[in-house]
Amino acid sequence: MEKAQANLVKKNMRTEKVTFREKVGYSLGDVAANLVFQMMMIFQLKFYTDIFGLDGAVAGSVLLVARIVDAFVDPAVGLLTDRTHTRWGKFRPWVLWTALPFCVFYVLAFWNPGIEDKGLVALYATVSYVLLMSMYSFNNTPYSALGGVMTGDIRERTSITSIRFVGSTVAQFVVQGLTLPLVSKFGGGDDGRGWLCTVGLYAAICFVCFVITFLSTRERISPPPQQVMNIREDIRELFSNVPWRAMFGLTLFVFITLAMWGSAMSFYFQNYVDQRALFEFLDGMGLVRPDGEGPFLLSTFNLIAHSESDAYAIGFSLFNMVGALVQFVGVVLLSNFLANHYGKKLTFVVCLSLTAIFTAMFWLPGPMDVTSMFVLCILKSLAYAPTVPLLWAMIGDVADHIEYVNHRRATGFCFSGVVFALKAGLGLGGAFAGLILSGYGYASGLGAVQSDSAITGIRLVGSLVPAALFALGVLALLFYPITKDFNEQMQAELAERRARQQLTESETSIHPRINKI
After folding, report:
1. What is the pLDDT along the chain (517 residues), one digit of tens a residue?
2. pTM for this entry
3. CATH number 1.10.101.10 is the correct assignment for the domain at 2-218+230-289+309-509
4. Measured torsion, CA atoms of residues 315, 318, 322, 324, in degrees rounded to the nearest 10
5. Which string of DSSP letters, residue by residue, matches 208-266?
6. 3-state secondary structure of 288
7. CA nearest to 379, candidates 343, 327, 335, 415
């Protein structure tokens, strides 16, 4: 009996290995999600203030209301997906079913229908954004949960999330680096048309990626067969779980910070950075051609500055691309190595602390000190990179911990609670950024001149305030109890439990046949 159980454990460990092809297929889902997510985080507030012409406080309130309202969709989605039973699994079908409506609502959220009344504009922005965020929940919550049931092997799970976030970094590079040049190229002077065409292109890519994710992945972990679905028990077990509460707090503070800093840096480069100094920096990088000619790829994506008026769009795009490339390298080279040697928790604590320090230092450069800004971008991106895949890998570990303690599994509900924190963080981060900018006197609309007070607000939102919130994320993580050693012990025991269950089921299926004979 014990030998059979040990052999079954070894067999399960082998079958929970995930092929590189499947990992890449899964990662394409995050490419698609981040073509949307990065736009919301970096450009949504600016789109509302500059294209829709909304006041910063109003735009921030739209983001807050939409994201908070939608955040309550996530727990419902988690409960629904945990109770989904199809021949494709619990979570994969949702990625396919929601692909088309998700892409349609994405386009509508960045379409300016030409409404003049600001009240109606705010209403349209709120409704379209709620629809987009709700569909994001129905797509991304099961997608994230899918990563938690593809394998129970902790090294494989870290590998899956690392490759997943290589994909997300590619999408980050595209959105943050190419959006403004593409808007200029497609718009030809009409920014509204440029935004619509750019987002339409991204939406088409999203749809293809979601379909590939559905076709290339499979689910390997199911709830214990004796488990009876009970919403009250799911809620009680989730909220009483200390690791889950720690991850909820961490996710909330991290995404408040990402939304705030991401929104602020666009304003920072357009209004604080000296455009002449930025133009000269681009010239030193070989990205200035007064005659408009340049390397094919750079010209194709409109990454060549012709005059000083191009400095903001090209300079901010270059800043984002540098950060994305460094983050890509950090995810590939550091994340797996650090997590496997030192554990996910310790890696996250150290790297997020360094990220907070480098974020705070963005207060220091003067308007003409462009080089220092890029150096800080490199340091911040490198420090933050190892944490990128670890967040979702750790939530998968939390789902295992709930099963370990309670002998019940609710993967979708576990992930949905953290996605709730993510959505709330995005809403609060965008709202805080808008409110601080408005409180310091930011003037909305294209071409508006900003006061010294508004510039101070932009600098605060791009440095000291998000740094303090990153520090709160570190504090929340200190309460996370799943260390490297404990995780290995937990996974070994869960593997034994699943093997015992399979052996029992196998014997049960054999005995009736023997009795019948």
Report:
1. 455 445 544 444 444 688 999 999 999 999 999 999 889 888 888 888 888 888 878 887 887 777 667 667 877 787 788 788 888 888 999 999 999 999 999 999 999 888 888 889 889 999 998 899 889 889 988 998 898 788 877 778 778 877 887 888 889 889 988 898 899 889 887 888 999 999 999 999 999 999 999 999 999 887 666 556 667 777 787 778 898 899 999 999 998 998 899 888 988 999 999 999 999 999 898 888 776 566 656 766 677 888 888 888 889 989 988 998 898 888 888 888 898 888 889 999 999 999 999 999 999 999 999 999 999 999 999 999 999 888 878 888 888 888 888 877 777 777 777 778 887 887 788 888 888 988 999 887 666 788 999 999 999 999 999 999 999 999 999 999 988 888 888 888 888 887 777 666 556 555 554 444 4
2. 0.72
3. no
4. 120
5. HHHHHHHHH--------TTPPP-HHHHHHHHHT-HHHHHHHHHHHHHHHHHHHHHHHHH
6. strand
7. 327
Token pair 């003049």: residue: 116
Residue appearing with tokens 């499947």: 22
- Residue 71 burial (CB < 10 Å; 0-12/13-18/19+)? buried
Tell me the C-alpha distance between 35 and 146, whole Å. 19
Residue 322 CA to residue 431 CA, distance in Å, equals 27
Cα–Cα dist 262/362, whole Å: 13
Q: Report which of 272, 271, 269 is spatially closest to residue 282, judged by C-alpha positions.
A: 269
Residues 94/31, Cβ–Cβ less than 8 Å: no
Distance CA(31)–CA(138), nearest Å, equals: 17
Residue (of 329, 332, 333, 387) closest to 355 by Cα position = 387
Output b/e per residue, 143-173; b: 16+ Cβ within 10 A: bbbbbbbbbbbbebbbbbbbbbbbbbbbbbb
Residue 488 in tokens: 């290995």
Task: Using DSSP, state whether 444 is helix, strand or coil.
Answer: coil
Closest CA to 471 of 250, 320, 196: 250
Contact yes or no for 413/75 (Cβ under 8 A): yes
Which of helix, strand or coil describes residue 402?
helix
Indicate the residue type of 230.
Answer: N
Contact 204, 103 (CB under 8 A): yes
- C-beta of residue 134 within 8 angstroms of C-beta of residue 201: no
Handedness of CA 505, 506, 509, 514 (dihedral sign): negative
Domain edges within the chain: 2-218+230-289+309-509
